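Entry 14. Ran structure prediction on the chain below.
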Amino acid sequence: MLRRTAYGIAVLGAAGCVATVPVHDWLAERITVAPLYWSDLVLGTVWPLVGAVAARGRPRNPVCWLMLLPAMIGPYHLLAYYAGYSRLVAAKPLPGWEVGAWVGCWGFVGYWFATPLVPLLFPYGRLETVPRRVCARIVVTVAGIGTLATMLRPSGTDPVPGVPNPLGTAGWEWLHVVMLVCAVATMLGGTLVAAVFLVLRTRAATGAERVQLQWLMLGGLLMAFSFLSLLLDDVQQPALVGDLVMLIGLLGPPASVAVAMLRHGLFDVELVLGRAIVFTVLSALVLGVYAGVVAGARLIAPGSLTGTCLLAFTALIAANGRGAVQAAVDRTLFGHRHDPYAVVAHVGRRVAPAGEPAEAMQHLVDALRSALRLPYAAFESPAVAAASGTPAAGAGWRSFPCRALGRELGVLRVGRRSVNDPWTAKEQAAVEEVADRAGTLAYAAGLVEDIARSRSRILSVREEERRRLRADLHDGIGPSLAGTAHQLDALARRIDDPCLADCARTLRDRLRSTVVDLRTVVQGLRPAVLDQLGLRGALRELLAGYDTPACHSSIDGACHGLPAAVEVAAYAIAAEAVANAVRHSAAGRLELTAHVEDTVLILSIRDNGRGIPPRHRPGVGLRSMGERAAEVGGRLEVTTAPGEGTLVRATLPVGDQR
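Output, structure tokens:
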């Protein structure tokens, strides 16, 4: 009931403002009427529309009803014109003209209450502190006294000065002073005090409420600057310019409330705001075009059928333009929710440049969230996961299964914009299509992960086999062959026959040559220092013997007994990084650290040298370090800046390979 009432008031106010324009022009040709200000019409249209949209989510919030008060502007003008026609034009009085005349004397007072009370009550309609409650009571009391004085003052109506107030009492002209004092007290004093409270509340607020108050503060500043520019300008401004400045100022508060609703979840009304914006934009366009058409018709062909034709043409343009305006607003607020193919195309363009499935999946959820203006989108599966944004508080999300080759490979979750978020069939189709693409990416990610695991296992088995072969060759076959060579040498010395002795010495030399070749093969299978000193000792050995740079190391005891593949990769990366730092960095200090954290070996080599130039192309050394890390399923990061040194950081998984 409250929502319908708010909608009715807003529609009545907007319709009254639209009807005021032709009625004013028609009546101005017959009697003297006050000038019509576009700022009043905007006040009576935009404020109530925003208030009605806010009432959809929180119909009991006083802020909504305060913003609906200016809806009286349109009916107030029309009733005054009705009284003026009855009193000054019609042959005999029309029924109820006295009521119209009376309302025409005070129907503008709604903003005496709205202007100071909206910043006091915004955003939740509560007065939490005693000073704010006292201020609100004073404003209501003073504005009420001013309204009563306006109702009873002996004067004509504002839109039609020639129509007297039927309740005005002769001799009570002092009520004019009361009205002016109350108007200044509420509009100036009350608004100024409310602005001070708004600043204090903004400084104390946190989170979304702080941002909402900041937006209202910005709208209030716009209105204040517009009013001050009119008061402080010494140059006589044309009436149209002053009216335009006033119009811009009056748009500030409702625009800030609209932004707070749309961007920061105030009142949960973003789903209706699109049509309200369309209605407001079209109303403003119709009013503006109508004014231009009327003025042009008077200059071109006064009193002819041309003006009527131009008005009909204007209405036709407005009707045809509504769809285009609605589509533009929908794209701004909700993305491509009404065009599934546009959603899929947008996601496809964002996913295409990705270099690997995990990166492509992150691009997919980012693009889906952007295309549909969603607060949250995420994909979950054993192979890959990605998330974008944060779920709206209390709104939850919708889940879509992602399939590929007949298997369900994950779940795509899209956050709802609000609890009452309507989910259209086109949005459903768009997200389902994107979910199928996510399933394909998840399948590809699973294949890539399987290949990486297989490669890692193959490498691990290879290095373990190399370690075993090296031990067997070094400790078994090598010594056996060397011993056989010694025996042949002893045999050659005991043989008396020179020919047989030469044959024995030839066999001895060949056998010793074979031992040398065997040692070369053994050295190539695996760095000997790893078997001699272990990874800790081998890494420390890399830093031995350098005076410049000064080398320091910090190596965890858990680095002992790691898988052979990880040991070889870590040693090779450290050796290359240390060699690069010594040869090229001109560093004065070099630090090597290695520790195991959560089944991951973290190896870092940091120097304080000149760094890597910005346009430097990675050479064989940097590429080989990256390949070494990738072979065991790890990652290499090189962080550098000119004059700030270089950090080489390798993360190598060890948990699955022990």
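The first strand starts at residue 376 and ends at 380. Will compare against last week's run tomorrow.
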